[in-house]
Amino acid sequence: xxxxxxxxxxQALNALQLSMLLFLLSIGLTVIFGLMHFVNLAHGxxxxxxxxxxxxxxxxxxxxxxxxxxxxxVAGVGVLLYSGLIKRxxxxxxxxxxxxxxxxxxxxxxxxRIFWGDLALAIEVPAxxxxxxxxxxxxxxxxxxxxxxxxxxxxxxxxxxxxxTQIGAMIRAGVDxxxxxxxxxxxxxxxxxxxxxxxxxxxxxxxxxxxxxxxVTPDMGLQILIPTLIVxxxxxxxxxxxxxxxxxxxxxxxxxxxxxxxxxxxxxxxxLLAAVLVIKPVGLFPAKG
Amino acid sequence: MKRAIxxxxxxxxxxxxxxTAEDIKVGLLLPYSGVYAALGNDIDAGFELGxxxxxxxxxxxFEIVREDTEVKPPVALGKAKKLILQDKVDVxxxxxxxxxxxxxxxxIDGAGVPLIVANAGNDEATGADCSPYITRVSFSNGxxxxxxxxxxxxxxxxxxxxxxxxxxxxxxxxDAFSASxxxxxxxxxxxxFTPFQKTQDxxxxxxxxxxxxxxxxxxxxxxxxxxxxxKQYDSFGLKAELPLYGSGFLxxxxxxxxxxxxxxxxxTALHYVPTIDNAENKAFAExxxxxxGRVPSEFAVQGYDAARALIEAAKTGATDREALxxxxxxxxxxxxxGKTSIDPATNNVVQPIYVYETVxxxxxxxxxxxxxxxxxxDPVNGCQMxxxxx
Lengths: 289, 390
Hints:
Chain A: It holds the Pfam family BPD_transp_2. The structure holds two protein chains of two kinds. By secondary structure, chain A is mainly alpha-helical.
């Protein structure tokens, strides 16, 4: 087993695929946090909602309808959340925000149960992405390669937007010093709203993408929340670089931990988290130096 | 004068009693919310149907009090206390999770209230922790998996890789299978336990199974994990070279449709599938589908047989807690699962185990029974109970 190069290639691809899924989730959460110091613990619930929307839409119009419309629907939920709750909570300090969004997790959990029931749902992989591709000497499921590709594409697009466009500059300014950014005439409030909705849409996209791979259950949002938070804490708050680095570290530690030291698999990542917190409490690549 | 009136009243009530049937109060202790709500609802629907079918034979009427365990042991313990002390139920039925059963076990045993377990499969409940008040009509973790070890060895399978979630039930299921498979001459070439409720992506483990040199893979997964596992197993293309076997919960009728074509050809063993060919099952399956619009699952039949066992016990004339508990230990009937009885040595159910393959049918996936393995009582496993006395 250990001498088989194909085995390790396969595991590296598994690690990369897990990383990309976590990246889609953590990037929205980290930028929202970095920009406005707002802790949205319900981010995972939006991921679950994305999966449920995708399952319902896929039942009507096929996989791609869910893929494109679920993020829009989740962004819509984001607008509602923002105007109904989060806007009012902006100034109330982290403890109140944590409590309210934590409560929101359970409210959304029960809402999904009421609307979609307790039985797990599933989506079929679209015909285009079925089967396996020979890749680097191994056969790997096409759909998983698609997730890796999608994650990389979104990373590239975000890197371009954040570093090369005006809105990217505004976001970076807001993350670095929101008071100064506001003084320079940037409408930080509106910027936050846009980023928040976009972050929600990415969470929805992650849900829609994960749905055919995993099963769609009401508690999937809770299950993904801890890994996402670990990614953000390891990577450092508010930065794209932190999100991608944290995701890759999590994905590889988790996957190779499961292979090399199965008894320690679930502990390894927490040990790493503790080590990062001791050595670099702000994370590896925080937005603010 | 006052005393005379009281005496007359007392006389009148005792005279009135034989006219009305005895009332038996049943506490249904099931998860109606939380991760196992779907299971709880299926058991409940089965229980109702059982009362409807056989209730009139019992010579007693049944009143149901429902309590939601939320799959949380402390909550369930509180609800059990409420049922026993406040509602004064004559019998408790239900319990989905082994953790919940462990939490209420001493309360039930101490209060002397009969409990009919309609799911929780932990081996200890009818082993070292057995109680004359606790009878189980569902299954034990070992019971479902033990016969599969022999059967797979008989099919000429030599080397097996096993996978299960890392918690008590996962380990008990796999241990029972491994013990009988190795005793029959097979070899376990690899064994992994995945972090329970933290693993949705089985990719790393599947690559390991592939590299292990096994002839087949044997797993236990249930619920959402089962769906994810079966789909991922298929997507990695393992099914052709490495056939998938397992405990029947993997492809339970409750969620096999969510697994879709990925579940086709998977061979598993369970104490009940909706396609078992006997008259009782035909009647049950038709009635259940008419009532709920779903095919009955193993959980539905466990609820149905829990009601049936209670009625059979009531038929002996038992109405109070002590007599019901004693009668429940001696229950035996031909049900949808075939011959079903309680082993008074452990109070665990004795039932045939069915090996079935999931195949495409006219209306989606269905279960093709490949073999009916003979009913075997579980080993006593350290259970020490006073024998049944009459």
